[in-house]
Amino acid sequence: MTATYTVAVLGAGTMGSGIAAVMARAGHQTLLFDVEDDKLARGVETVHGFFDRSVALGKLDDARASGAKSRLAAVTDLTELGAADVVVEAVYEDLALKKDLFAQLDDVVSPSALLHTNTSTLSVTGIASGSRHPERVVGTHYCNPAPLMKLVEVAPGRHTADWAQKATLDFLDSLRKSAVITRDRPGFIVNRFLIPWENRCIAALESGLGSRESIDAAVTGALGHPMGPFRLLDVVGLDIHQQVATRLYEQLRDPRFFPPPMVERMVAAGELGRKTGRGFYTYDDTRLFGS
Q1: Are residues 51 and 121 in the same domain?
Q2: How many CB atoms lie within 10 A of CB 181?
Q3: Does residue 211 share a domain with residue 245?
Q4: pLDDT digit string (tens) for 115-170?
Q5: Which domain holds residue 243?
Q6: Which one of the listed residues 123, 153, 199, 241 is annotated catalytic?
Q7: Does the active-site annotation cover 118?
Q8: Residue 1: pLDDT above 50?
């Protein structure tokens, strides 16, 4: 029988709500934390919408969807996370913010609780330095959209203990996720390849090499990707792509990571992708995990 956990997810944005959906679907009691009431309410709505959509598509029955919803609770006070066996931090990519959260968690959760960071651009070791127990901090980067993608990158920090890495792999197995081990380096494996490639696709569109539809069709039809770059960028969010790409450029100083001018224009116009109803495509249904 698969073990069940109490999981706290910090941050109710795109990644946090997606990760919370993964936890609740897997049968774990899930605490979704955010300091902003409105953002937390939207996060819960996003998770519920994903389960409703899964039922409509025949991927989940009513009973399982209802059970998953019942396992999700909204939390605005860190002190309510004391029962958590695993904490997954998915807040904004700000090192000082993440370090401060982990420092606070030392006084809240059990000494045996695992502390995971979903960072994709910052140093796991740097984030873990905010904790008095860096040996239990592990990088777990969920590929976006988290409810639909099976891969999770596991990045041990410099002081991560072997037991914490093993326990993390066991936990991810309970989610039916596939884990790959990577070193604590900017972008890990996926974003080292993905961000420059997405930037090249955007630049190709901007230069008139092809339309958004033709480039997406070429990538899915010839390269076998399940989703074209522009559909994917609309799910991830152009603002998120801009943030990740810029942070990686700042660390690596490789021009391939710098986002093309089109990204800045789209973000300035509020065309962030599916969550705003318009990005490279337009959407009537703004639920992020609807497919």
Answers
A1: yes
A2: 12
A3: yes
A4: 999 998 999 999 999 999 999 999 999 998 899 999 999 999 999 999 999 999 99
A5: 192-276
A6: 153
A7: no
A8: no
Instruction: Look up 120 and say whether it is catalytic.
Output: yes
Residues 19 and 101 in one domain: yes
Q: Which amino acid is at 225?
A: H
Which of these is catalytic: 17, 123, 131, 191?
Answer: 191
- pLDDT above 50 (res 291): no
AA letter at 1: M
14-31 confidence digits (pLDDT tens) = 899 999 999 999 999 999
Active site residue 144: no
Same domain, 47 and 164: yes
pLDDT at 289 over 70: no
Indicate whether 284 belongs to any domain. Answer: no
DSSP-assigned beta bridge partners for residue 73: 31
271 is catalytic: no
The residue from 28, 133, 141, 241 that is catalytic is 141
8 Å CB contact between 135 and 164: yes
Which of 17, 54, 118, 120 is catalytic? The answer is 120
**18 with 41, same domain?**
yes
Residues 6+ apart with CB under 8 A from 10: 16, 33, 34, 87, 88, 89, 90, 91, 101
